[in-house]
Design brief:
Order of helices and strands: HEEEEEEEHE
Strand content: 25-35%
Shape: globular
Number of domains: 2
Number of helices: 2
Largest sheet: 8 strands, antiparallel, barrel
Strand order of the largest sheet: 1-2-3-4-5-6-7-8
Distance between the termini: 138 Å
Helix content: 40-55%
Length: 197
């Protein structure tokens, strides 16, 4: 019996060793499967990376929006420059009386005198002119376009309303006056002097 018990014990031990070896193989196989699962998990991580890329694309979208906003700001700034003519202040802003006794009030927004109100669109201090739209309430040529040129002679300011009935802003811009001829350089008439108040 002892021998049988020993044999049984040996067989059990052998069986146990075989099972353990199988378990180790299974465990190794399981590890490989686990690795595959881990790899699959890594693929899932790659999916996460893809999601991260999508997030990056969203960030790129945000950057694009930011650029668009900047471009829009630039366009707005350009629009503002167009509205004022340039970044410099209009050099003839002030209150004046002309040689006929009429008052002229000139701001960056309008030129107001006895003939009406003229809403300034833009000016050019170097070329010494401004373009304005005649106010809708003006008695003559309402809502048409005017061009005012100015010049300095002997420390005195003179102006000429070069255009007063332009159908378009371009018509007004196209006008011209001869500042070298104060007696007849304003469409055949004399330039008008302005005395600052």
């Amino acid at each position: 019996m002892h021998q049988f018990t020993l044999r049984l014990a040996a067989t059990s031990l052998f069986a146990f060793a075989s099972l353990t070896a199988c378990s180790d193989d299974a465990a190794e196989g399981g590890d490989e499967q686990g690795t595959e699962e881990t790899d699959a998990g890594t693929e899932t991580d790659a999916g996460t990376e893809t999601d991260s890329d999508v997030g990056t694309e969203t960030d790129a979208g945000t950057e694009t929006d930011s650029d668009v906003g900047t471009e829009t700001d630039s366009e707005t700034d350009a629009g503002t420059e167009t509205d004022t003519g340039n970044a410099d202040d209009l050099e003839i802003i002030g209150e004046y009386i002309d040689e006929w006794g009429d008052m002229h009030v000139i701001t960056a927004e309008q030129w107001e005198n006895a003939a009406g109100t003229f809403l300034i669109d833009h000016w050019d201090n170097e070329a010494t002119y401004l373009v304005a739209q005649n106010d809708a309430q003006n008695e003559y040529f309402p809502e048409l376009w005017s061009r005012f040129d100015w010049t300095w002679a002997d420390d005195a300011l003179y102006y000429c309303q070069t255009v007063y009935d332009g159908a378009t802003i371009d018509d007004a811009v196209a006008g011209s006056a001869d500042a070298d001829d104060l007696a007849a350089g304003c469409a055949g008439f004399s330039w008008t002097s302005l005395e600052q108040q």
